[in-house]
Amino acid sequence: MENKLDCEIVRDLLPSYVDGLTGEITNKAVREHLSGCKDCAAAAARMKEPESPEPAPQVDYLKKVRRRSTGRALIVGVVLMLLGMAMLSFRVFYVGSAVNPADVRVDVLVDGSDMKLTAGLASSGMGISRVTFSESNGMVRLTVYAVPKAFFNHGDFTASYTAAGDIVQVRNNDLILWENGAEISTAAARLFAAKNPFVGDMPSNSRIAAILGIADQFGSFSNELETAAAPYGWTLQLENPLADAYVSTAQEMMTADACVILAMIENLDSVTWVYETETGTQEYTITAQEATAAIGRDIKKAADSATDVQTLLQDLGLEESDAWEIPE
């Protein structure tokens, strides 16, 4: 009997044969067929070759997920960057920073509970973005915010404000701009804010001298204080000599400055000026009593309010400091 198998039967047996699941008789018959049939032998050889791993569907899915995640992350990053730039621009060009009251000019007009103001900055590279207001018991406090100058914040800034009741005082932070029905000058407001109870506080004394512009009037000077016991004094030693022709004018200026200093420093009793002239060293002293006589009222009550300080400056002719400069 012939045990040769047909190709169709061998093809059906090959998977089991390759996996070692057929019996010895079947294996012998299959081997004999494969030895004489190239096609079936080739098929058997392909079955025995290790299968090439094909990318699993889930791997492709993960790649797609990663690509989508990368794209979304990029979009989110761009959105966040644009949002950050927008917030920074808003902060820089609108929110701004509060301006030192000494660096801003504010003119106010008050009518009962209504106020209008115009503000401008000393710095040409900055503009005013906004002005905020708060009020308490008739006192309105404003804060000016500055930003880099742009087309929408150049020039003067105007604003209006209506208080809950009649306005009695307007301040730019601590500087009084308006009170008792009158607008307060910057010089008067700064002097009132620098009011000092003790002459021994030299930094505060220096602020008063700087506001008065004593260095602009006379040049550099040194200071000496008498604080050991009353009467308390402040001596200003001028470094630049004075020509005899200008001594009289200089003494007028010294008297006016001394009156303000005596009003601003509560326990100060006298101001002495020491300077060199063509004829030698000179001293010129103004006491509190002499200052009182000069202005016609108690010098120690001449700075009770910002309005009083402004009246004192007007009476002494100190509103325009340039008029008091001594020629070199």
Task: Based on the model shown, name its key terms.
328 residues, alpha+beta, six-stranded mixed sheet, four-stranded mixed sheet, 10 helices, rod-shaped, disordered C terminus
Structural features, described:
This protein has 328 residues and is an alpha+beta fold. The protein folds into four domains: 7-48, no CATH class; 53-95; 97-183, no CATH class; 191-324, no CATH class. The chain has ten helices and 13 strands. Strands 1, 4, 5, 7, 8 and 9 form a six-stranded mixed sheet that branches. Strand 8 and strand 9 form a beta hairpin. Helix 5 (186-193) crosses helix 10 (306-316), helix 8 (247-264) packs across helix 9 and helix 8 packs antiparallel against helix 10. The protein is rod-shaped, with a radius of gyration of 47 Å. It starts with 6 loop residues before the first helix and ends in a 12-residue tail after the last helix. Residues 321-328 have low confidence and may be disordered.
